[in-house]
Each structure stands twice: as C-alpha cells, then as structure tokens.
Amino acid sequence: MGVKDLNAYQVLKEEDLKGIKAKGCLLRHKKSGARILLVENDDDNKVFSIGFRTPPQDSTGVPHIMEHSVLCGSRNFPAKDPFVEMVKGSLNTFLNAMTYPDKTVYPVASCNDKDFQNLMHVYMDAVLYPNIYKHEEIFRQEGWSYQLDSVEDKLKYNGVVYNEMKGAFSSPEGVLDRVVLNTLFPDTSYANESGGDPEVIPELTYEQFLDFHRKYYHPSNSYIYLYGDMDMEEKLDWLDKEYLSKFDFVSVDSEIKYQDPFAKIVEKEIPYSIASDESEEDNTYLSYNKVIGTSLDKELYLAFQILDYALLSAPGAPLKKALTDAGIGKDIMGSYDNGIYQPIFSIVSKNANQEQKKAFIQVIEDVLRECADKGIDQKALEAGINYHEFRYREADFGNYPKGLMYGLQMMDSWLYDDEKPFIHIEALDTFEFLKKQIGTGYYEELIQKYLLDNTHGAIVIVKPEKGRTAQRDRELEEKLQAYKNSLSAREQEVLVERTKALEAYQSAPDDEEDLAKIPILKREDISRDIEPIINEEMNISGVPVVFHEIETNGIGYVDVMFDLSGVTEEMLSYVGILQSVLGIIDTEHFEYGALFNEINMHTGGIGTSLELYSDVTNVREKAFRATFEIKAKALYAKLPVAFDMMAEILTQSKLEDEKRLKEILAMLKSRLLMKFQSSGHTTAALRAMSYSSPSAKLKDMTNGIEFYEKIAYIEEHFEEEKGRLVENLKSLARQLFRADNMMLSYTAAKEGLQDMETMISSMKASLNHEEPKDSPCMIHCQKKNEGFKTASKVQYVARTGNFIDNGASYTGALQILKVILSYEYLWQNIRVKGGAYGCMSNFNRIGEGYFVSYRDPNLRRTLEVYDGIVEYLKEFTVSERDMTKYIIGTMSNIDQPMTPAAKGDRSMNLYMNKVSAEMIQKERREILEAGQDDIRRLSKVVEAVLKADQLCVIGSEEKIEEERNLFGTVTSF
Predict the structure, then answer these.
(1) Could you tell me the sign of the dihedral formed by the alpha carbons of 665, 669, 674, 679, in that order?
(2) Which domains does the chain have, with CATH numbers?
(3) Which residues are CB-neighbours of 515 under 8 A, at least 6 positions away?
(4) Could you give the CA distance from residue 211 to residue 191 in angstroms, rounded to a whole number?
(5) pLDDT tens per residue, range 682-702
C-alpha cells in the first residue's frame, strides 16, 4: 500500500480483505495518537470519516447536540453553516453525521477527487476547531434555549435537537428501544440517552457542552477512516501536516465499560402516550431481551444474525408463529442489535396486552427449549446463511456508498478493540465456519447458553396511557410559567433580549469573505453528458422484454410486470392487500415459512411491489400506468429456481387461508402505523397530493392512509368481510396474472440471457389464459384538507398542488429550486429559526409540487413560511458563485453513483415513463446553464402549487385542535 515510509505514522497491521476485494491497513499517528484505518481498492466512490468514542454521562443529549453544532462554522470555514453550504455546493455522494449510543461519526463521500479533498478539509476543521467556543448561539440554536418573544408571551423551550427528540420520544418503538438499552446496562454509559431526553436536555449548560468537546473531540480519541481508489500516502501526509501534527497525545477516558451479567432477569414497565380517542386494549408492547456476549466475537456476531432469521425474523419462523398462534400480539418483531459493545437479541409482541406477559415468556421459552432439545430446522439455517452471504457478496446498499457501510461495520469491533477493525468485514471464513456447524449442535448450544440459561436479560413492557402527552405538556407549561413568574421584570426582559439576539444571529447574512472560504467546484467540473439509458426491446416467447445489458457480477435481476388497467377503483385497496400477502401465505407446494426458506436457499430474494409510471408526454390528461411487479435476483445458474418460485407465488398461493389473512392484516396495520410515525412527512405529502392527482390517490389507496383505513376496517369486521376479501383476492389474481398481461425487465450481462426463453415460456404457461375484463379504472379525487391527530409532540406539515393544472410548466431548473428551497429558504426559516428537524420540497415532471416539514414544533407558522416562498423568489438575487453552488448541489443529487441493479431500474423507469434521452439532456442543459433570472421565473410555479391550497398535517392533538379551522376534517389514526 506504500505507507510505510511516512514518518508520522506507525503501521500496526496490514490485511488482504478478500471478501470486499480490498487491502486494509491499520495505523497510528505517532504524535497525536489518532487511529487510522485505510481500505484501498478500485472503488471511485471514495469515503472519509472521522469518529469519536462519546459515551454519554447523562441524558442531556450532549453527544447529539455536539454532532449538530460542530458543523455550524469552524476556524478555517467561519460561515454559520458550512455543512449546508457543502450540501448545496458539492458533488458529495454522502454527507452527514450520526450520533450512536457510544460514538459519533462524521462521514463524507464523493467520486470527484477535488470535491472529496474539500469535504475532508471542511469536516476535519469542523470537528477539531468548531466555532462553538466563539458563538454560544450555536448551542442555543441546535441544543435548547428559552424562547420568549415578548414579556406577555408564554415561555417555551426551542432547539433543533430538543424538537427532534420530542418527535423521537413520541414513538412507542423508540421508547421501547431506549428503555431496553438503558435497562440492560445500568452500570455503563448505555444507561443514558445519547440523543437526549427532552425532559433532561434543558439541564445542559453551555459550559458542560464545551467541556464535552474539550474532552472527547481530540485526535487521541479519534477513529479516522479512508476508503476507495485514491493516493493514500498523499491523504495521510495532508492529515498530518494540516491537522494531526498540531496535537500531542493525551489520555482520554472514553472506555465503553463492560456490564457485568445480572444474577436474574429484570423487569421494567414504562408508559407511552396514545391519543385520547385511541383504545388502550391491544396496544401494549411486550419484549424479551437478552445480552449476547460481545461484538468482538466474530462467530457469535454473525451466528446470531442467522439465528435471528431462523427463529424470529423469517415469515413462519417458530417464535413468530408460536406467538401469533397463541394470540399474543398482532405483530411479532425482533432484532439483533450488534452495533454496541454487548449485542442484544430482542423479541417483541406489538398490539398485545399487559396481562399476557406470563404467557408471552412461557411461549418463547417453550419454543427455545424445543429448538435446543430437538434441533433447529436445518433448511432455515441454510437459508439464513445464504440470505446474509448473498447480501455480503452483492454489497448493494442502495443509495449508501459501499465504503460508508463497510466503515460503520468495522466500527462494530474497532471501537472496542484498537487491533480488531477487520474481523466482521472479512466474513468469508466465518460464513464457511457457520455452514459447517449445521447439524453439529452448535446453534442449539447457542440457544441454550445465550437465550435459555442466560440471566443477563430484561422483560420490558411499554404500555399505553391516554392523554399522557397532553398531561406532560401541561406540566411543562406550568413549570415554565412558574419559572417565568419567579423572574423579575428585568430578568424577563433579558430573556426577550436573548431570544431576539438569537433571531438576529440566525437572520444575519454570512460575510461574503467567510462564504468564499468554503471551497466549491466550477460548472466546468460537471460533465454535460447524461448517464446512458440502457434499454433493448425484445420479444421472448411472445412476452415483451426490456433488457438492460450491464455487468452484474453474475447476478440476474428479473422484474415481471403485470398491468393494473382494468382494475376498478373499488378494488385498488385489495390490490395493495394482494401485493402484501403474496410470498408470506401458504402455496400448493409449500407452507409459507418453507417457501421463504426455499427462496433464500437458492436466490437473493423475491419480493412484490406496486409501481406507478406517469406518461410525461401526456401530463395534462394525467395519464399513468400502474403495474403489479414481482422481482427476483439470483446467480444465473439459479434463475430457473427463481422463475419457478415466482410462478408458485403468483398462481399457487392459497388465498382462501382466512386465518393467515387475518394475521397478515393485523401485521400490515401495525407496520403502516409505524411508517406514519417515522415517515409522517412523506405520508402527509402523498395524502395531500391525492386530493388532485389520480396516481397519488392510487398510491394512497395501496400504501397510504386510505389503505390503512381499509385494512383497519376489514380487520375490525373480519367475520363479515372475510368472504369478500377472499373472493376479491382470487378474482384479482386471475385478472392480473395472465399470460397476455405479462412484461419483463431484466438486468444482466449478455451471458445472463442464456436459457431465458425456456424460463419465460415455463412461467407463461403457468399463468392464467382467460380473456381480460374490459373495465377501465377511473380514479376520483376530492380535496379534503385533513388534520390527523396523534400522540406525537411534533408535526409533519404538507402543502401540495399541481403547477401544470394551474398554468405553469416543468423545466430542469426546478431541480435547482428544490435545492435552494430545501437548504436555503426553508432550512433557514423552518429548521434554523423554527426549530424543526427537517424540511424539504419537490417538483416533478407531471406537475406535482410539495413543501413539507419533519418533526416540526409549529403548524401555522410553517404554513406562513410556505406562503412567503413566492416573494422570496421574486426578489431572488445571488452572486454567480452562489448560483454555481446551487447547480453543483443539484447535479450531486442527479449524478449519484448507481449499483448495476439501480442502473437497470433507472433505465426501466425512464422507459415506462416515456422519458427520452433527449428530454434528460435538455433538462441537464437547463440546469447547467441556469441563472438567477431562471429561478425568479419559477415564482410562477410555486404560486401555482400554493394556489391549489392542498393541506395535510399529521401531528399533535393539541396543535391540530388549535388550528382546526384550517382543515376540512380532523380525525385520528
């Protein structure tokens, strides 16, 4: 690797990382003691990360507030928000920071060498020389502060992290995860909440905050990681000269202490809030949790991922099935958290009742005992190993760079042992070891030792309490009022002055000289050419096929598509149910658990989805095409099995299994509610858009709020509805899965086409050959403007509309507007000043536009911010440098590196949406050549979106009731 000659570093270990096709090198910086990890390969999506071990000593959230704050200006880059400047003006493929229970990491990634160096520079400066010492306002903005707009107003707390954690603590799943961690490790830093407990955050002082940085943000406590195709020696030399050589080694006490096992299992109960009109029945979470060794045991680390699959996570797994059959909870979930020093294996019954606790424990331990005594299903173990090994070899992390995910996994061991960064990332030998253990009693012994005999565990119950949020809000209001009353008139005026001073700091424009210090690329650094679209139309065995010839490392990605035209509006929600049921219900030849295992033994997985494609050549008619899709990925040699299994699922599923259907509906209802809580912003935006968009209405009917309402109704009236449900599912399967309704998208290298004709012919023969029904689908939209009340303390505020309906048109410059609004106007007004955790906007080719906030303490104020966008754009005036920055940030979103599967999906999406290469090239030119006049003209687009006046808010009962006059209807989930 050529780093031995660098005098500033000591090479500790070099390793050939065959599993990820890379060379690894572990070093220590001699002067500062910084730990360095290099992973060198030919990946041009380069990653840099600096992390620190940050065990929290209390629940004030200081690690989390620090993570936000160091990115708000530094010695070399003194502008108020270099992070956002880099989001707006770099070609990053990843740019973020994350707080974990025991560490804080700052990763960046880019394919552009110059950009990558810029990102490294900004991040190193941010963590080591932040402006937090100069500007207390950063702490008050990102952490917490008293907000008193005038002496007559109510005193409030505000702050980005404070509001973010109010949202996080509103989720019962979030409450459960935190309580489990705190309960299992009472003598360690895991007993504290690193993200911050909203009730404790206001106890943090500015001086304590600074002390935390002084103690932990030192190179001696750092973990620096470089990955990809770059000159490692040059990067190490730069790190030494610019930063590390300025620091001497100090001893930092940041050890993650080991929790001694308990003498007996502990139990804990804690309430969570539900809305006043929700039922407390069937709303309790029961959880069974055991500590599993340490994350430094590489066999155990992976073995329990396999056991999690075989015992709990896979459909039909014995723990999941036994608890479901016993009626203990309606949604059985589990997890194996190995991202901490002592991993946790958890079994959770959601929608249970507190009085079922004893039966819950009994069922779990009976199943575990039977598995330990009689043996685990060997096929389930084989499937679990293949499932994880396929993903390890494929290394497809979606939108996340490979190097980022590898780096985070290495921290699972490196953080706890300086000499062991590679043990989990170099996993091929571990997989081979685990395969050999099947049938030897190894897995059964693990169950006996770590799950049955292990007393280091906790039974945690999270139970519902009506109106808890409102009660806590009242108590907080009274507490703040009492504090305000205790202040003298002058002290109250001081709070008003401090509030205004913070607002003045936030509103003051950055000095142009400071902004100019943040490095940006030039427009000329961006390629003017689009990524090629790879679509080759074929006809194989009478089936239309679109082939995407891409090197895929021997994996074929198959997407079989069935058109939904002909499905009536009344049946669309049932299509959503059918899509959710297939693959997890018995078929003619397999019980559903065995089916899932068979799939994972031979393939990389099979899944179903509903997709919508809008005809961009016919936007005024709102023409779109909806498809039911079943997707598989497998090595070429295993593709025949994949096709057989897809045919089995589509044509042989036992849709008359009422018992299983009822179980799936209950699980679906549970998962949708969880999605609404974690992704309320996308849910609200989709719902608001459905008031005028037939395609959005279809999405809402099959995976949104209307779908949830349908599921909830059928589940509640199951005896009356089950006959209709079964008949509708069977009817839809006959109607959709016809040979003449089949189309294929296939991504592979040329050799992957071998035998495709045989496989398609076989599948086609298994499908229905009836004549299609001629019943065109007419979707009716209706404006509602709804407020959905939850027990949350924050809001998701969505305003949407179709700008083409109101006379505007689409242009590539709208992609720039998205960056300007999301990271300039909305960021400043909704996040920085309003205290929301997030805000975003979007505009698409069919005229749909939206503005939405995330974990937002406000409602009406946010709507006023949206109303101000038009005037902001009319007056939009920026320098050429700023305009270039926005364009580069836009291209960063467009030019994200893609996996082979993603390249195939992109090409197919463009094909189905009728988007030509010429259209994309034109949009790219409109982006690269845009000036501020082009942005000003877009005020008409925003005006057209707002004119639709479509509003949906998901949020706290109190806020929505306060603003009831904004809504046509107000309801609860």
Answers:
(1) positive
(2) 9-256 (3.30.830.10), 266-400+420-465 (3.30.830.10), 537-766 (3.30.830.10), 786-972 (3.30.830.10)
(3) 79, 85, 881, 882
(4) 21
(5) 999 999 999 999 999 999 999
